[in-house]
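Entry for the shared binder. Reason: the reviewer on the internal report wants the predicted structure included alongside the sequence.
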Amino acid sequence: MKNINIFCFGFGQVAKNFIYKIKSENFKINLSTTSTSQTCQKNISGIDYESYFFNNESYDLNLVKKLKDADYILISIPPTEGIDHVIKNFFKNIEDSKPKWITYLSATSVYGDHKSGWVNEESTTKPTSSNGIARLVAEKSWLSLEKNKNLPVQIFRLSGIYSNENNTLVRLKSGNVNLIKKKNHFFSRIHVDDIANILFKSLSNFKSGEIYNISDDKPSSSEEVTLYAVKLLNINRPKVIEVKELESEMLKNFYKDSKKVSNKKMKGFFNYSLKFPTYVEGLSYIRDNLI
């Protein structure tokens, strides 16, 4: 059995599924995480671990030693108010550590609007949302650590994440989906299992300083995905609304940008075949096995 000593800043669905994947491959896991709750011991899937308090400017000082001892560091905490608080609070500690692997989870919002065209890792980044702008600043901070301090850093730009628990089918069944029509609006998505699988592959196939788009094979419109989910559930179409009727500022920002995200670099470098190549396989699996 192999050993892995990993520190996760944030412990949401991506980080948890990554840990599940590592365990399924018969690793012995020494896990530490952060949360905005008080420090405590926890257990996930039979793994005992310490969850350390960390909330913007405040954190449990005991986490610093665990961080310095970690061989692998995953950062899934997004910037808040434009600030990457992991970099702000811990860049010196990370500089002084000797990790084998640091992965920063960013988002494809850094590309901004490309008028429904394809983007790859070499494309111009011109984010339009405050979140996208903050993500790009954070990416540059992490890559500067890689360049100036010779730390092993890679960036994963994640497309819209869905999972067995959080997806269009579940939202439709709860009545929380509207059909939003916008001509030539495309976005990409990725199932959380595929993210976890690619993260796992990167443990043994790692090239520092690289950026990878983590996306499936079929950029599509929100309308297309929703109508497929409606068909799977054999229910009536939800209410059709205009983008201007949206109340959520985050959703309004989402519909400002249209792009198709290429995953060629990801699939080529990691020699990876997607578990769910498109929303068709992903949603069909969820309907057939979980709903």
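Summary line for the report: The mean pLDDT is 95.
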